[in-house]
Each structure stands twice: as structure tokens, then as C-alpha cells.
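Good morning C.,

I know you're traveling, so I'll keep this short. The sequence:
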Amino acid sequence: MGARFVDFAGWEMPVYYSSITEEHQAVRQCAGLFDTSHMGQFLMTGSQAESALQHLTPNNIKRLQSGQCQYSAFLNENGMFIDDIILYKYHSEKFFICVNACNTEKDFRWVKDHLKGNAIVQDVSRDYALLALQGPQAESIIRSLTPDPQSLKGFHFMETQIGGIPLLISRTGYTGEDGFEIYIPTSSPNTASLWSIILEKGQPLGLRPAGLGARDTLRLEAAYSLYGHEINDQTTPWEAQLGWIVKMNGDDFIGKKALEQAREKGLKKIRIGIEMSEKGIARQDYPIEYEGRIVGKITSGTLSPTLLKAIAIGYIDPKFSAPGTKIHIDIRGKKRNANIVSLPFYKREI
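The C-alpha cells, ready to paste straight into the viewer:
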């Protein structure tokens, strides 16, 4: 299909098939199909699986109904990110967990080391391929293949089939658009054919294959965090503006005490959005300056295909974080004008 491949977390992954911009626009206007099989998956089971997982994560798992998903995290004792994750609750004794590809082995060791009670965790990453169908036409395309998932609400999942292939489908994504993530057992003899089946059905509606490049520009416009950029083991959910995934009034979890202390002391940095007001793209680790002194740094930046502006996400001293604040970005020794703006940069109309 003419894809350009690169090594990513030990996987050979397509950066693009045609161009990043074309694939980005396809997802915003029609639909794109991503192969994200590099992501890791764990299965946790046992009579105390729910309480064991609640101890490992800061969000409130107990409020989930069967068939619901939840965005959450693994935090270390300092209340900082080991990884951000999505949980899938079958029932109180069975959970499916999706983790970042670069963290799969580290996450699995950490979960095993901190697991409590009657619960077992298995690394089932090699047992699943994962496709992401994203964009405003995603529901129509899915409906042409199987009628079941169209009834799914956001952050819900179900098991179904397409062409006799068993699937787990969730209404989730990483692009800022409506869409579905489709887990396919690698044990199925027809796993690889599902990519072609979806593309063929979706072509009349503008579906095209999309690579990692467009996935990154899409998530950046939507201001979704990426591990190793916006979140890492030196950043708390408070700083990342992800405090909504932390339920301090609920059960105890790893990192809770440290988060209580961090909140009392106040933040030293906070995640912000930036728009360049003159030529230049702010890239990871470029310094952010205010009145001649460094007050933060960039974590991600790109030229937005939707907004046709250079945008970035970074961390800054909270004293200078108000939207509208004028700053400078040091781009290879040249000071470029920029403004702090509210996040997200892009939000789809519902």
C-alpha cells in the first residue's frame, strides 16, 4: 500500500501511507483506519480482581457497569505516571486492560509486583491485533459490517463478529473524533483479512488507511497526552491537568498519599497549550521563555492540518499559565513569539 515504515517500540509501524496531512484530513472529514496492534493488553481475573485493580489505579472502578471502559493510570508511590491506560470491565472478576506499547513489559512487572488478593494478571498482548476506525463516518462503516456496535455509547464495549471473526469493539479512540477500537484474536485464521474487509466497505465513504504520523497530529489537536511527552514518571495528574481521573474520596490506591501532599504544596508546573504567532514549530524540549527567562519547555508540537497553525503542548510555571499570556519559544537559538491558549485546540461538533 506504499506505506513508509519505522521501528516503534520494537514494532515495524507505518508512519503514513500517502501523506500525514491527507490521512489527518480523512479522519477529520470522513474516516481513517489505523493498525495499532503494537499496544499492550493485560487480562485480570479472580474473585478479588476489582479490588486489586482499584488499589493499582486512581479512578473509581467500582462505579463501572459491565461493558464500560474507563480512562485511568498506573501511578508510582510518588503519584507520578507509570502509564496511562484504558480499563474494560466484563464483570467484577474480569477486566481487560490496554497499555502503551513502549511500557508493556514495565507495566506488567509493576502490576505483578503490586497485585493484592485473589487476582491473576496475564500479558495477552500477543493474543490480539488492534485496529482503530476513527472519524465521522466510522459508525456508518461499522454498521455496514455488523449492526451491533452502532448502539454502543462512548466508552462502552461489546463482543461481536464481522465476517465470522470474533471481536471486542469499544467506542473509544485517540483522535478527537467518534470511532471504534477493534480487538481481534490472533488465533483467528482470518485476523489479517479484517483490515482489507473494513477498507473495502469504507472506501465509498472516504475511508483510507492512516499511520502513526496522523495519529500523532490528531491526538495533539485534541490535546490528548502521550507517554514520554506530556506524561512520565516525573509528572502528576494534577500537573498534567488530568485530575479528573483521580478520585481522592474513594478507596486507597498507590500514590494517593503523595498526591495529597502535592496538592497541599501547590504545583511547580502545569500543562498548557501554545499557538505560534510567527513562523516556526515548537518541538519537544524547546525552552519556553517569559520576559527573557526560561519558565518551561515544550513536550509536543506540530503544524496543525486542521487549524493551519503551529501548535504545541508544554509545561510552564503556573504563574505564567493564563491563556493569552505572551511568551517566546527558543527555536534553535531564535526567539519566536507565541501565545498560551486554552486546550483542546480542536473539539468535534456533536
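Safe travels,
E.
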